[in-house]
Design a protein that fits this description.
This protein is mainly alpha-helical and 328 residues long. It has one domain. It has 12 helices and 4 strands; from the N terminus they run H-H-H-H-H-H-H-E-E-H-H-H-H-E-E-H. The strands form 2 sheets. It has a two-stranded antiparallel ribbon with strand order 1-2. Helix 4 packs parallel to helix 8 and helix 9 packs parallel to helix 11. The N and C termini lie close together (10 Å).
């Protein structure tokens, strides 16, 4: 079965099914693998080295398992490709908190948001909750959609015994992302042990973050009749106003498109931080901004798919000549 057909089915499955809570998502198994390996490796004194071993083993095992799953069946390959995408689950999380806000239950909204973000939610007002939802959606547009899509398409150019590396590349990226979310912290426990995982995550997101912020999100804003000019302007102006080398790119494009300002005073684990601002504060946040942000998320996922299909075809033409029948 052709890769584009497989991936299109996987993409549609994500839009329809998302990530149900009852479903044993592969990322949970990757997380359990990381926890097991951490218990075995953290005891050694050379934390940077053992942390590097943790990253290599996790990514390598995930890659190999994914390859053999793809080898077993095209249906399995499609299914696991679908699990690497998170468009609907991101949207559902945002809508869930937003719905509680509309109902007027602030305490429940704070609790629901706490499942979505790592910042302190106890003392937030409506504006801070909406800002947090949108910052999370904009950042995870890369981690949950564009980056796994990028790696799946890159992997489709490589194969062994006719088995594409699309799934191993995409699932390998999810392993990298999960490593960063579990051990990539700059605290006393993980500053050394998680250093390699954090650096690999930075490198893996370097290209997808810039493609998303510089092209995909502004084009999505244009198609949705949002402020695409500001999306580009804020992207080029504020994309580096973030502690992460990659997260600010998509956040800047989102902020520009929506006409809001991200960043500012935020509490993490009981400590307040003044984060650099991203975007112009043209108006205050409103609950309706969440709906606009989710529309931009969905449109960006579709634009990403179209762009990668076009690039795949162009690269195929350059490498193999014009073989359009291979893509239908």
């Amino acid at each position: 079965m052709n890769f584009l057909l497989k991936y299109s089915v996987a993409y549609i499955m994500d839009l329809i099914i998302g990530d149900p809570y009852w479903f044993p998502h592969p990322v949970r198994f990757i997380g359990k693998l990381i926890t097991l390996l951490e218990k075995l490796l953290y005891r050694f004194s050379c934390k940077k080295i053992t942390g590097g071993v943790l990253a290599i083993l996790t990514i390598g095992i995930t890659f190999l398992v994914s390859f053999y799953l793809a080898k077993l069946s095209p249906m399995l390959e499609i299914f696991f490709l679908y699990t690497t995408l998170a468009t609907k689950s991101l949207a559902d999380e945002g809508f869930r908190v937003c719905k509680v806000l509309v109902e007027g239950d602030m305490e429940k909204a704070k609790k629901e948001l706490a499942y979505l973000v790592s910042r302190d939610t106890n003392n937030m007002d409506v504006t801070q909750i909406v800002r947090s939802i949108l910052e999370t959606i904009s950042e995870n547009t890369v981690d949950g959609v564009i980056a796994p899509m990028f790696f799946a398409f890159m992997g489709s150019f490589f194969n062994v015994e006719g088995i594409s590396f699309a799934l191993p590349f995409a699932m390998g990226y999810k392993a990298i992302n999960t490593l960063d979310s579990m051990v990539g912290y700059k605290n006393d426990k993980y500053i050394d042990f998680g250093m390699v995982s954090a650096k690999i995550d930075d490198m893996a997101n370097f290209i997808p973050a810039r493609i998303a912020g510089g092209f995909i999100i502004p084009i999505g804003a244009f198609l949705l009749r949002m402020d695409y000019k500001s999306a580009w302007r804020i992207f080029f102006r504020d994309r580096l106003n973030h502690s992460s080398p990659n997260s600010g790119h998509s956040e800047a494009a989102f902020a520009g498109a929506l006409g809001v300002q991200f960043g500012g005073r935020t509490s993490y684990f009981g400590k307040w931080y003044d984060k650099p601002t991203i975007g112009d504060k043209l108006r205050h946040f409103s609950i309706q901004d969440v709906e606009k942000g989710i529309k931009l998320l969905y449109m960006s996922s579709w634009i990403g798919l179209v762009i990668f299909v076009i690039l795949l075809n162009l690269m195929g033409v350059m490498i193999n000549g014009f073989t359009w029948w291979k893509y239908i």
